[in-house]
Design a protein that fits this description.
The protein is mainly alpha-helical and about 70 residues long. The chain contains 2 helices and no strands.
Length: about 70
Amino acid sequence: MERAPICASECALAHVVNNKLSVIIAMCDRLAEHATDAEVAAGLRVIHMAAEALADELNKPMSRSTGA
C-alpha cells in the first residue's frame, strides 16, 4: 500500500485557496471595469494585488519550505 506524499494535505489546501484567489482576482477586474469612484477603484486594486501576491506565494516551488 502506497502512502500519500507528506505534502498531500498542504497541496490540496493550496489548490483550493488558489482557486478562490482566482475568483477574487477575476471579480476585482470585473468590478473595476464599472467602478466610477476613485476610492472604490483604488480599494479594488489593493485587493487584486494582495490576492495575486498570495497566489504567487502558493505557486512557488515547494523546495522553499523544506530548507533546500
